Amino acid sequence: MRTTFFHKTKSSKVFKNQLLAWAQQFEDVVWLDSNNYEQNYSNYDAVMAVDAFTSIKTDFYNGFEKLKEYQTLVNDWVFGYLTYDLKNDVEALSSNKFDGLEFPDLYFFQPKKLFFFKDSHVEIQYLKGVEDEWEDDLKNIRHCENKGRGNLQNESNNIKIKLRIHKDEYFEKINNMLAHIHRGDIYEANFCQEFYAEDTVINPLETYNKLNAISNPPFATFLKCNDKYLLSASPERYLKKDGGTVISQPIKGTAKRSDDFEEDNLLKNDLLKDEKERSENIMIVDLVRNDLSKTAIKGSVEVEELCKIYTFDQVHQMISTVTSKIEKTTHPVDVIKSTFPMGSMTGAPKISAMKIIEDLEETKRGLYSGAVGYFSPIGDFDFNVVIRSILYNETKKYVSYSVGGAITSKSNPLQEYEECLVKAKAMRTVLEH
Fold this sequence. Notes:
By secondary structure, this protein is of the alpha+beta class. The chain contains eleven helices and 20 strands.
């Protein structure tokens, strides 16, 4: 079905930049980059999928069933995304908030052309029918060196970021959520707010390159779906299937970085010992264990790491790793459906938390707090969590980024607000210079 070629690069970094610039000609692009971040469970350093041969685009209604049918039928590499609003397919929920971005609820495509990076080697897989294009493509890719790397200036420097929820209203909403917690409706919920700019034109590739350079995250994504773009510096893996093993790595707990080595270590240790952050993380670990147990072989769910601190360029994060084993007969899409949306972006109990989130948030989340990733021909998959991301609808000239935090009984509205600003810093810096 695919013809495989191998290419050795003198510099992976240069070739990545060239490839990204070359990919801009296509309507369908998914670029996933680990930025060589040291991590367990990594298959590739980076992957590029371009040019749809077949695709599926649908709203949430029966979304997972349609994806299951498509993925089974194609039986090849498929790349794409799941929006947060697929929750409405899994549970009796709805999403009626304002949506400035208008991403379809679910989108996957079978790429004609694929590039897998590992060290200095690139494995290139082309579908039969286009395999004779690879040598010309390689020449064209090499000529793309300077595009998108230019002086990294957005076409419009006067981007005016607006807040969908102002500070006083944010405090009011957090207090409302705390009332739900004290009443026993929920233990924890992730509350998100949107920052946006209207009538704004950005250069998606330049914006992505800048965001990625600031953050260097392990789950960076450049996604293009016609006129809609996701530019993501996500540090979080949602779910991965590797043979019979399923891995989830929820993040709960954030601390800022310092340029001063001693102060930075102090911030890291404070996060490790922070009772509120640990309790947030442990609640979500329980939720993830419960979600994974729905498809797991009995007794196979394990917590491999609990509340481990990982350091990134912008922040320190508290991450746990939960794994399970599944039967060969379990369909990969069923594993995702039974754990979606991810616990770190919802709360506990999950359904109650999602109802309260829908009631209190001002915008439809859409692709934010959804997931981007791929299925392999043998049914393995890997998906990130869409956070620390800029979303862009080119036709509507609408730019958006959202940030959120977990609210528990110990939450202080002002501290939660300040944590949101820490998380928003990289996106704001990139857009507003």
